Amino acid sequence: MSTPNHDPIDRARPIPPADQPARLAALVAAVRARTDLVPRVGMILGSGLGDLADALEQPVAIPFEELPGWPAATAPGHAGRLILGTIDGVPVAVLQGRFHLYEGNAPGLVVQPVLLFHQLGAKIVILTNAAGGANPLFGPGTLMAVTDHINLTGRSSLMGANADELGERFPDLTDAWSPRLRERLHVAAIEEGVALEDGVYAGFIGPNYETPAEVRMARILGADAVGMSTVLEAVAARWVGLEVCGVSLVTNAGAGYTGVALTHEDVLAAGLEAGPRLARVLRRFIAEL
Ligand code: HPA
Fold first, then answer.
1. Which protein residues touch ligand 1 with a CB less than 6 Å away?
2. Domain range holding 105?
3. Is residue 3 part of a domain?
């Protein structure tokens, strides 16, 4: 017996890699019905960072729910739109919001935006997120270029029959986070006079913030920031051969460091404060690619 499901989109339905090509073809057709812009860069904007999309010239915005198989975004602070346009003449595709595991989304849905970027012609993906500081030196407002990640979600979008036409069964993740692009991020940050740290991002499944013991564990494992996104997207992007870089905006010290409880409102407020600094860095980074 199946349970009645009144949601026309079953966000939890597993999508093995082998099912992605047909789904991506439908997504590409829906995008191409609206614009023939071929992005060079795909970018995902995390919690509170959506305003970066305002930098796009001649934007064509498509709400998630108008794309086949995509449910509307549910996370507060996430608009839920795919926007194609240019930034200083460079064609880009920007996701304002993203699909999180904690919304009940299948891993294969979480990674579809980066796979779509690739299908649309992008070569580079920029992943941004709001995160907690696991490194005690990384307080609210710290910007951190991601050097590597630790996937603590226990999930993978690559489980199930592989799609050999998209990527190989056992993708290598050495230098998954491109040293070349990270160097470019640092150059852009210096030119903008913005401080940019380096660090390792640990991805948890959420939606609860971590316990203090989990933050300490992440720190011992080598993490500098903790969050609830990004890691599955990075793996899928490497699977299809995209060059990956990313920046975490540390909105709060990790749980337990200050004794003050974490709230989503504080996270969004810190994102609003530091978001414009990150926007400047990314804009220059893209312009100088
Ligand atoms: N933990 C996980 N995700 C987050 C945090 C945090 O402390 N802050 C913003 N996103």
1. 130-132, 209-210, 226-228, 251-252, 254, 262, 267
2. 17-287
3. no
User: If you measure from the C-alpha of residue 10 to the centroid of ligand 1, how many angstroms do you get, rounded to a whole number?
Assistant: 27
213 within domain boundaries: yes
**Closest CA to ligand 1's atom 10:** 131
- Short-list 225, 89, 232, 214, CA closest to 151: 232
Q: CATH number, domain at 179?
A: 3.40.50.1580
Domain assignment present for 78: yes
Expressed in angstroms and rounded, the spacing between residue 225 Cα and the centre of ligand 1 is 8
Three-state DSSP class for 132?
Answer: strand
| Strand-pair partners of 198 | 145
pLDDT in tens, 148-164: 999 999 999 999 999 99
pLDDT in tens, 172-185: 999 999 999 999 99
| Residue 158 lies inside a defined structural domain of this protein | yes
What's the pTM?
0.96
Q: What distance in Å separates the CA atoms of residue 289 and residue 283, rounded to the nearest whole number?
A: 10
